């Protein structure tokens, strides 16, 4: 009788544990705007709205999965939801990288976050790519604009020649080469060391990195040339088995919360940038506008690089990348118009727009059910 009671207690404990044993993975630190709201607060809201049926334990700062392993990790069920930076896996996600490399087409982060989310949730070719990689796409994001944050003045096209720039890969690296700089590939976690040790002249990243990666301690100059913004991959990608195991009602909860935190994150990210830049300026960092020659070089690159994007996509097996780019551009233009008519500082208004234009149009009984 005692043995049976122990066995029953173990079974009960196991059931409770499995209900709470859902892992949420992000490789940024918990203080980052991409984690604070979209993962930490998101997990609490989801638990509340599902009456405890979905409880995510948030692992941040790469404590569960390193950046390059997040796609495989969610596919294999190490995480049930994860952030993934798409440029780490160009061979596995060629369509996503085609879209993600259009970062110079429109440098408004809010527009690109909403447009890339709608594309990722609705484009048939992109949906097939997610499925082939064992992931259910939940929603996107966008960093704020990328700026050159340097340990030496870089103000002009002449200044940038030969400079070693930390780039996010893809189109960013090609831009560096286009203007005669040297692209350096390294994760954001190593930017501080690179600038401090002198192996980098500039880190090209969103300016919240002045605080979130402590770059203000090693950056003396920032150039405000808007070198795109990063939105490749996804903010929420779900393990297929997990997604199929939860009820349609709980999938709808996830849809609603992702719509909210898609909006919340964008506002929080820009606030973090403003705070970080102001703090760095108080500590002596100089902020300079690019000269006209540098602006012109970026504009020339944007036009020239589209042919490279298409050629790379074809080499990776993408069928008709021209049509895919045309559809994506149409979504970007659509969101450029929609967001012009809403208060972009109002989280609730932006979330309502994300729901009505994107998430409410998804069928929670069939979406992601492969």
From TrEMBL:
Pfam families given in the database record: DctP (PF03480)
Keyword terms: Periplasm, Signal
CDD domains cross-referenced by the UniProt entry: PBP2_TRAP_DctP_like_1 (cd13666)
InterPro entries xref list: DctP_fam, TRAP_DctP_sf
Primary subcellular site in the record, as a coarse category: periplasm
Domain of life: Bacteria
Signal peptide: 1-19
Name of the protein in its database record: C4-dicarboxylate ABC transporter substrate-binding protein
Lineage: Bacteria, Pseudomonadati, Pseudomonadota, Alphaproteobacteria, Rhodobacterales
């Amino acid at each position: 009788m005692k043995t049976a009671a122990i066995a029953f207690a173990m079974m009960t404990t196991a059931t409770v544990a499995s209900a709470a044993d859902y892992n949420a993975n992000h490789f940024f630190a918990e203080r980052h705007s991409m984690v604070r709201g979209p993962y930490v607060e998101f997990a609490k809201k989801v638990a509340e709205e599902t009456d405890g049926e979905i409880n995510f334990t948030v692992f941040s700062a790469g404590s569960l999965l390193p950046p390059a392993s997040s796609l495989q990790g969610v596919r294999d069920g190490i995480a049930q939801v994860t952030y993934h930076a798409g440029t780490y896996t160009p061979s596995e996600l060629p369509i996503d990288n085609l879209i993600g490399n259009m970062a110079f087409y429109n440098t408004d982060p809010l527009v690109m976050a909403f447009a890339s989310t709608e594309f990722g949730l609705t484009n048939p070719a992109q949906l097939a790519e997610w499925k082939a990689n064992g992931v259910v796409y939940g929603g996107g994001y966008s960093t704020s604009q990328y700026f050159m944050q340097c340990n030496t003045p870089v103000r002009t096209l002449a200044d940038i020649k030969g400079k070693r720039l930390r780039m996010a890969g893809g189109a960013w690296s090609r831009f560096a080469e286009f203007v005669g700089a040297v692209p350096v590939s390294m994760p954001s976690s190593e930017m501080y060391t690179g600038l401090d040790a002198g192996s980098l002249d500039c880190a090209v990243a969103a300016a919240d990195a002045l605080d979130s990666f402590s770059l203000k301690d090693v950056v003396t100059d920032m150039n405000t040339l808007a070198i795109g913004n990063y939105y490749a991959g996804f903010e929420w990608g779900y393990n297929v088995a997990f997604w199929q195991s939860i009820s349609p009602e709980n999938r709808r909860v996830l849809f609603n919360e992702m719509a909210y935190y898609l909006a919340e994150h964008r506002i929080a990210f820009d606030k973090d940038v403003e705070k970080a830049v102001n703090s760095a300026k108080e500590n002596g960092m100089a902020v300079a506008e690019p000269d006209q020659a540098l602006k012109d070089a970026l504009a020339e690159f944007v036009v020239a690089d589209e042919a490279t994007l298409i050629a790379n996509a074809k080499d990776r097996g993408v069928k008709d990348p021209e049509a895919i780019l045309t559809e994506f551009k149409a979504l970007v233009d659509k969101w450029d118009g929609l967001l012009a008519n809403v208060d972009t500082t109002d989280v609730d208004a932006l979330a309502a727009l994300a729901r009505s234009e994107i998430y409410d149009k998804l069928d929670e009984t069939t979406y992601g059910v492969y």
